[in-house]
Write a structure and sequence with these properties.
47 residues; mainly alpha; signal; Entericidin; palmitate
């Protein structure tokens, strides 16, 4: 069980270090939201 938590912690730290700042994390989340919105718009236009 300790190994699983260690892997989860390592993955979390790796993910957070990629952003470096809260602002960077916000920008990453915003970009993901925009990509989802664009995809949904394209699907709606095809229907």
């Amino acid at each position: 069980m300790k190994i699983i938590w260690a892997l989860i912690l390592a993955a979390t730290i790796g993910t957070l270090s990629a952003c470096n700042t809260v602002k960077g994390a916000g920008q990453d989340i915003q970009s993901a939201g925009e990509a989802i919105d664009n995809t949904a718009t394209k699907v709606q236009k095809k229907m």
